[in-house]
Amino acid sequence: MSFFIEPAMAEGAAAPGGDTSSLVIMMVIFAAVFYFMIWRPQAKRTKDHKNLMGGLSKGDEVVTNGGMIGKIAKVSDDFVTITLADGVDSHFQKAAVASVLPKGTIKSI
What we know:
Number of strands: 5
Distance between the termini: 84 Å
Helix content: 25-40%
Structural class: alpha+beta
Strand content: 25-35%
Shape: rod-shaped
């Protein structure tokens, strides 16, 4: 007599706790929720930000991740030079640009 195996399980009876199809269905539902609520929106944001960085050009008014607002003076492969005020230029990575503002936004502030 073994203390670890129930006699009914040793004879080939079904394991207590239900069948495995409900477990598989729950895993599929969990994967679908994960995909539609986490993975897909994040991939869309990443794609939109890559398009934003690729479309930067001289004269665009932008906001950086740090909250600085300025006009792009120069664009290179990985960096942009942003004029924050008259005579004040700063260099930022392209990835630090959060969004492009409509033209004339800086003058209205």
